[in-house]
Specification:
This protein has helices at about 1-5, 10-30, 35-50, 55-75. By secondary structure, the chain is mainly alpha-helical.
Length: about 80
């Protein structure tokens, strides 16, 4: 996050909620998406407080989700 924040203010809060949702995917499959309303509340709060814009919270969520997802895939050796 640090190198990105030197140039652009990505939302670490969005990343912080996206990681656990990605890990829940490996435990519960598609039912992990039931946690998405919690992520939307976090992203909404960052927008409401005017500390980020839509692109920053969206990028934070996507980066947090996919980085966690791919790390777990690598750790569990699930590449096929």
């Amino acid at each position: 996050i640090l190198p990105i924040n030197y140039f652009w203010k990505i939302s670490a809060h969005s990343m912080g909620i996206a990681g656990p949702i990605a890990s829940l995917f490996f435990l519960f499959g598609k039912f992990s998406f039931l946690a998405l309303p919690l992520a939307f509340l976090v992203m909404w709060s960052r927008l409401r407080l005017k500390v980020h814009d839509v692109m920053q919270v969206a990028a934070g969520f996507l980066l947090g989700y996919f980085l966690t997802f791919f790390q777990i895939k690598l750790i569990l050796n699930l590449w096929k």
